[in-house]
Design brief:
Blueprint: E1 15-16, E2 35-42, E3 48-54, E4 59-64, E5 79-83, E6 89-95, E7 108-111, E8 114-119, E9 122-127, E10 133-137, E11 144-150, E12 153-158, E13 163-168, E14 180-186, E15 192-197, E16 203-207, E17 215-220, E18 226-234, E19 236-241, E20 247-251, E21 256-261, E22 265-270, E23 280-284, E24 287-294, E25 299-306
Parallel strand pairs: 1-18
Antiparallel strand pairs: 2-25, 3-4, 4-5, 5-6, 7-8, 8-9, 9-10, 11-12, 12-13, 13-14, 15-16, 16-17, 17-18, 19-20, 20-21, 21-22, 23-24, 24-25
């Protein structure tokens, strides 16, 4: 968002259904062609759920359940690994530091020297240099999934409880007292999963429910209005806005990484995933490296996209 004060969010915010296929960015005529140039698979992970790119250190951070595929189980076996851009594990347990516990860490967001990660009913913020962390309880949250930060405001999706919450300030690591936790919306049949801050100031959202209850793509405007961009696409997880305004997302129903635009709709780029979760995008010369964790297969897929 351009600034946090521009947002007036309330529980009573109505769902405004905009025309299907509204592009959050550039016009359909400006959509750039995209193809898969290569794919590689990195193995040796233990149920990886999210990957984030650190442009300063040029490394990846990967959240791993570390045990059984039971995403709501509090077993203390979760971890965040530091991984190279080639998919090699550089440090198996980069976070949490000794004495701290992660259970089933999910979405990761990296900004500057901070890393945020959700874990069932809490969210953590870590200092990437000292590795010091602080945990924040999220009352009423059942399945904290994806965090995103914009203008020092942290948004967190809870797909099982069908709600979105915000935390202010986002960087609460050094603050005295607790940050403010506010419910943005609940019960809108969105089941928010992946989040991404769009360039127009909105928060882009994809939904995830059961296999027979497809969800779509939505935008939370700066004024607190919810717009539907596309309906009934699948069980959507990761999300990213490209420079031409089109979106990259992952879908469990089709087992794919796809691009969506107002002009083309859902366009598959890579397939064969069993659990394509929360990916990251690394800009490269001539294209993009998309690192997609396959939660079910316990591997990372490195997909290079070229124009």
């Amino acid at each position: 968002m351009k600034r946090a004060t521009a947002i007036v969010l309330a529980l009573s915010a109505s769902v405004a259904l905009g025309p299907l296929g509204v592009s959050p960015g550039a016009s359909a005529q400006e959509t750039k062609a995209l193809r898969v140039a290569s794919e590689q698979t990195a193995t040796g992970f233990a149920f990886p759920e999210s990957v984030a790119y650190d442009p300063r250190a040029k490394v990846l951070y990967v959240s791993q359940f570390g045990s059984e595929l039971k995403p709501a189980e509090k077993d203390g076996k979760g971890r965040i690994s530091k991984v190279s851009l080639e998919g090699k594990v550089l440090e198996e347990r980069f976070l949490p530091a000794a004495g701290e516990i992660l259970n089933k860490p999910k979405g990761i967001w990296v900004q500057g020297n901070r890393l945020w990660v959700t874990d069932i009913d809490v969210v953590w913020v870590f200092d990437l240099t000292t590795r010091r962390g602080r945990k924040l309880e999220l009352p009423g949250v059942k399945f904290a999934n994806d965090p995103t930060v914009t203008s020092n405001v942290l948004f967190i999706s809870d797909n099982r409880a069908d709600q979105l919450v915000r935390v202010e300030p986002a960087d609460f690591l050094e603050m005295k007292g607790d940050p403010k936790v506010t419910l943005v919306f609940s019960g809108k049949s969105i089941n928010p999963n992946g989040l991404y801050p769009a360039r127009d100031g909105s928060i882009l959202i994809v939904g995830f429910m059961s296999p027979d209850q497809a969800r779509g793509i939505y935008a939370l405007t700066a004024g607190g209005e919810i717009k539907t961009l596309a309906r009934d696409l699948g069980r959507l997880d990761g999300l990213y806005e490209m420079d031409d305004g089109t979106l990259l997302a992952t879908d469990w129903n089709s087992g794919s990484l796809f691009r969506w635009s107002a002009k083309t709709g859902m366009e598959k780029l890579a397939s064969g995933f069993k659990g394509p979760a929360d990916f990251c995008v690394v800009p490269e010369s001539g294209g993009l490296l998309v690192v997609v964790p396959d939660l079910v297969k316990s591997e990372l897929r490195l997909v290079r996209l070229a124009r």
